[in-house]
């Protein structure tokens, strides 16, 4: 019997071996996000595209793609920096074929979570989307008769031979291996070694070599991990983060996600710990309501926090470094199921002393996202838990919209959000916190993210708990519909409060004589700016709390380009920017370095001249906002 795993140094060799073992019907399960063995996947897709007799079904989530360059200003911004920002990540051929309609009928891709917004309007992707909790994905994989599981792995030399770690993704594979060991599944595990994948320890992440049937290990197929550049944290995001940081009790348990708001929450907690004289008055100034009922805390952490989060983010590394994340459970300050971050994060994990890296232990999503399989132990560990998740919208009756639009188009997915809501109601002292920006720009117009109703929801209103916007905290748990409506109107943008209140009165859901208290009628961006701008100028609330791959010039361009994107839906806004930009150019009052970065220092056409004027005006407005 050949030694397991059988090693390969070419993709053709491992593809041949897989097809020889399982035949021409391949049901391939791949981890969410970073853990996909791209070269193996592409080799199997190529075989199926060349041979219609091969049936290939791929079950996965969060297919990663480097953003398309687009055209116009977007291309000018991304093209010179694409590889620097996102890494030299080998594209997954099924994604491109699915997007352009060339994926043949004998290849099917089912995903239960999308890269946010990337698959809207792509018919086959939308039709094959599986609406599922993250924790249910393993069951659906087994139901489909999976016969191949593919995984990107880290390798470490050992006395008895190589050791393998599931690295970024022990989210589902350990439970699949358990099912195989118990006779509930029959599949081969194939791996691809990646030198940049951090070697994560713990019994769930470490897999014995003999569990793998085949391993692709070659310098020719090594690649740079996908890098997710950090986005700037706006003042509105910072306001949310500061208020959420007051809701996290010392000695508690924390779950947060990736993105600007996640970074803002981590930054708020660090500010509470390290610069409490700044944090306490600043966070108190943002919420006009009664924080005593919410048991708000603004003192530094003594016992510290323990993390139980489906996702390990850079924010958790920074919290541990700042002595906030320090309450240990089974020797770890954090248990997480997967990670997907920027290149500095991967480097930090790879180069971290092993004893410190072991404090960040990777576990299956069945552990992080549920209480089943160890209820008593997890109850004791997850004291005073705060599950902090972002959403797109919240209705006035408390339903949360996070994953899809009203016409059924999936934006992302449910992921673990519903599981965390369930945990918050099952655990003593736990709360489920939804964060949303009070407004967004849609087709050139400012619209409210707090709405009367919506055709779709992710979290039903009977699981309403806490909602935080930049304007305050709404405590909804156990309250009547009328009280919930009043709470949510109090944290809505004041430009929309009147309309929301009138709709609720018309529906008979709040008293006809109810009035919004005076303290909540000044919910404006200007108030947030006046409250937080001095702290930002003093360096307490940086645009990028934990660093960035963007240069200083690119950091100035980001908010300007966002303004241009929002203005593009309105001809009046476009003309206004062009006129203002022309006036600034005539005065010489332009950001020359930014214009040069975009290749607009000397416009060679009328179109480029218009771009120059518009960008000059947007840069000026962003700098003075």
Average residue pLDDT = 94
Q: Which structural class best describes the helix and strand composition?
A: alpha/beta
The number of strands is 22
Helix content: 25-40%
Main sheet specs: 9 strands, mixed
Strand composition percent: 15-25%
Q: What's the Cα radius of gyration? A: 25 Å
In one word, what is the shape? globular
Low-confidence stretches: none
SS element count, helices:
24
- Give the CA-CA distance, first to last residue: 69 Å
Any chance you could write out the topology, listing elements then pairs?
Blueprint (H helix, E strand, L loop, with lengths): L5 E3 L2 H12 L2 E5 L8 H13 L4 E6 L11 H7 L3 H5 L6 H8 L6 E5 L11 H5 L9 H7 L4 E9 L6 E3 L7 H9 L6 E6 L12 E2 L4 E5 L18 H12 L6 E3 L4 H15 L1 H11 L19 E6 L2 H8 L12 E5 L4 H9 L2 H4 L2 E3 L2 H4 L6 H7 L3 E6 L2 E3 L4 E2 L15 H10 L4 E5 L3 E4 L2 E4 L1 E2 L14 E4 L2 E4 L5 H10 L3 H13 L18 H13 L14 H16 L3 H17 L4 H6 L8 H18 L2
Parallel strand pairs: 1-9, 2-3, 2-5, 3-4, 5-7, 7-9, 10-11, 10-14, 11-12, 12-13, 14-17, 15-20, 17-21
Antiparallel strand pairs: 5-6, 6-8, 15-16, 18-19, 21-22
Helix pairs in contact: 1-2, 9-10, 9-11, 9-20, 10-11, 10-12, 11-20, 18-19, 21-24, 22-24
